[in-house]
Write a structure and sequence with these properties.
224 residues, mainly alpha, two-stranded antiparallel sheet, membrane, DUF4386 family protein, transmembrane helix
Length: 224
């Protein structure tokens, strides 16, 4: 980062960091939507236990294919931000930021593995689905995603928002959006369907903001 004469710092993160955030947001949002479509909840799940619909199976397979790539771009995003926050970062908040990001990634992979197990075990070749296996796997996958992964995402968003505000690298409106996103993920993600989509939405805003600031900085420093 670079400090101006007024004491305000500007983001010196490379364009790849913002691009990684945008790609991660799009991949994660697509995976979440496909998981929601592939594994139903509530009365819909009770009415048709198991993967009796080939469209649902295909949606879940597509989601599982996207999750590893979303995790890769997320780790790249974390690394690029930390590297360019530099010595100005608060060690405590930076540790919380990094730790929550890593735990979120691991939990997201665990939820994907649980969903994959539901797909494989509940739909074996030439055998009828087992309702108990379907219910257990479905609840396990959703619990990992909405109860644990999203709460780690809330910690990640809140710590990033506080770091950005303290170092003045994020605008006030994006800090407020980040804190509202963290509250939603912390208290509503397990009870409100589709609430988890606020995390990729926030990541998309952050990635676009980094790209915009980076482009503006390049324009101002261009000798031409």
């Amino acid at each position: 980062m670079e400090e101006t004469g007024t004491g305000r710092r500007t983001i010196r993160t490379p364009r790849g960091a913002g691009l990684a955030g945008v790609i991660f947001a799009l991949l994660l949002a697509a995976a979440m939507v496909l998981v929601r479509l592939g594994i139903p909840e509530g009365a819909e799940a009770a009415a048709a236990p198991g993967f009796t619909d080939s469209v649902r199976r295909d949606a879940l397979r597509a989601a599982l294919a996207l999750v590893p790539f979303a995790g890769i771009f997320f780790l790249w995003f974390i690394g690029a931000i930390r590297a360019h926050v530099g010595a100005g970062e608060d060690k405590f908040l930076a540790t919380v930021f990094l730790g929550s990001g890593l735990v979120f990634t691991a939990t997201m992979f665990g939820a994907a593995a649980a969903a994959s197990a539901v797909l494989v075990v509940d739909h074996p070749a030439d055998l009828p689905p087992v309702p108990g296996t379907w219910d257990f796997g479905r609840h396990f996958a959703f619990t990992l995603m909405t109860e644990y992964a999203m709460r780690m995402a809330a910690v990640f968003v809140s710590s990033m928002s506080i770091i950005g505000r303290r170092l003045r690298v994020l605008p006030r409106w994006l800090t407020i959006v980040g804190l509202l996103t963290a509250l939603t993920l912390l208290f509503a993600s397990s009870n409100l369907p589709w609430a988890e989509l606020v995390f990729p939405a926030w990541s998309l805003l952050l990635g676009v903001h980094i790209l915009t600031v980076n482009r503006g900085a390049r324009t101002r420093t261009d000798p031409a």
